[in-house]
Amino acid sequence: MFTVLTGAQFGDEGKGKIVDLMSKDYDIIVRFQGGDNAGHTVTVGDDVYKLHLIPSGFLYNARVLIGPGVVLNPEVLADEIDMLEKSGCNVEPEKLGVDSKTSVIMPYHIELDNLRESALTEKIGTTKRGIGFAYVDKVARNEIQFSDLTDKNKLIEKLSELAPQKKNDIEFLGGDPSIVMDEELIDKYVKLGKKLEPYMADVSYEVNKAIDNGKSVMAEGAQGTHLDVIHGTQKYVTSSSTIAGSACSSIGVGPTKVTNVLGIVKSYITRVGEGPLPTELNDEVGKHFQDVGREFGTTTGRPRRCGWIDLPLILKSINLNGYTGIALTKLDVLSELDPIKICVGYKLDGEYMEYPPQLTSDLSRCEPVYEELPGWKQDLTHVTEFGDLPEKAQKYVKRLEELMGVPVEYISVGPGRAQTFKNL
After folding, report:
1. Which domains does the chain have, with CATH numbers?
2. Which residues contact 183 (CB under 8 A, 6 or more apart)?
3. Residue 292 CB-density burial (10 A; 0-12 exposed, 13-18 middle, 19+ buried)
4. What does the radius of gyration of the chain's CA atoms come to, in whole angstroms?
5. pLDDT tens digits, residue range 188-209?
6. 20, 27, 36, 40: which one is catalytic?
7. CA distance to 304, 384, 385, per residue, from 390 (Å)
8. Where along the chain is IMP bound (predicted)?
9. Is 52 a catalytic residue?
10. Catalytic status, residue 40
11. What is residue 158's three-state secondary structure?
C-alpha cells in the first residue's frame, strides 16, 4: 500500500498529527518536498514534539525517510536528532534515512533569502531559511548534495566553481560575500556531514522495494496545496510542488503504485505570510480561531491569518490531488460559534463562481458567499467517535462531505493523539 498525504489549504492543517495517528499502520513514512520552512507539532500525553524535517512517524516502529525532493539544512536535522534523543527517542540510522541526492541548504542560500526578502517592496512572506534559493540551485544544477558533505575536498571543489556567481549575487544585494567560502562554515558543514553520514540512503530504491514486498508506505507532504509552486497563488507560494503527484516524482515512485491520497482539511482556514485569503476575518471570530486554535507558526512563531472554511479552494485541491479521503481537523475550535459559515462560492465583478479564478490578482478581489449552519456550543474534546458528536456537529461534517464529494475518514477534536478518531 502506498498512501500520499497532503494539506488541502495553505498548510498548518494538522498533517503531523494525522501522520502520527496513522503511522502505527505503516512500515515507512517518507517526506517528499519542502525544507525546514515546514513545521509540525505532535502531542502525546504531556510530551510535545515540534519538528521541521523528520517525519512524524518516528514515535512508532515505522522507518522514516527524507527524500531527494527535500532541501536539507543539516544543522537543523542534527538538532532535531539531538532533541529527540534527549526526550528519550533514539533516532538511529535504522530508524532514519536521508537520500544521498538531497539538496543542501548552504549559508549563502539563507543570506540571499534574507537579503532578497528585505529588498522587496511587495513581500512574499518567506521564512528566510534559504529554501527558495536552494531549489533555484537544484533546478540550475548548481546544488550541493547531502553526499558532498562527507568529502571536504569535493565540497571545496564544488563551492569554488559556484563562488564567483554567489559572491556577485550577495554583493549586489548588499551582503557580505565572504560567507560563500568561509573556512569555519565549510568545516562546520563537513563535520555535520560526517555526523549524518550513517543516515545516507537510496530512498527511491528503498520505497519501491518496500511496496513491491507488500509493505505499507506513506508519503508526507509539507505546506499546503495552494502554496504549490505551479498551481498555488503565485507569487505567494513555496518553492516546491506540494501536491500529491509530486510525491511520485520527488521520491522516485511510479504513479501506478499509489493506492490512496488523503487530504488534510482544517475546519476553518489559515494562512501565514502574504497572499489572498478570501474568507479572512479581522473580527472577534478571527481572533477566536487564532486564540482557541493556537494559530501561531511552528517554524516562524508568526500569528496566522484566519477565516471561515473555503470550499472553492478545497474543490480545487481535490482536483489537483485526486483525494480519496479527507481528514478534518480542529472541529473543536468551532464549538463556541453560532452560526457557523461555509464559503460555498465567490462573487467577482458581479459574477458568481463556485471555483477559484486562475489569477492570484483575481482571487484577491473575490468576495465570499456563505452558507450558514447552526452551531453546537458544546465541548467536543472528549468525543471518540462520530456518533457521539452533537447532532449539529454531525450535520456540519455531513454537509462538508456532500459539498466536497469526498468522504471524511478522520476527525480531530483536539491536539492529543487520542483526540482523533476514524469516521467509520
Report:
1. 2-90+202-265+311-329+380-422 (3.40.440.10), 103-199 (1.10.300.10)
2. none
3. middle
4. 22
5. 999 999 999 999 999 999 999 9
6. 40
7. 28, 12, 11
8. 12-15, 37-40, 127, 141, 223, 238, 302
9. no
10. yes
11. helix
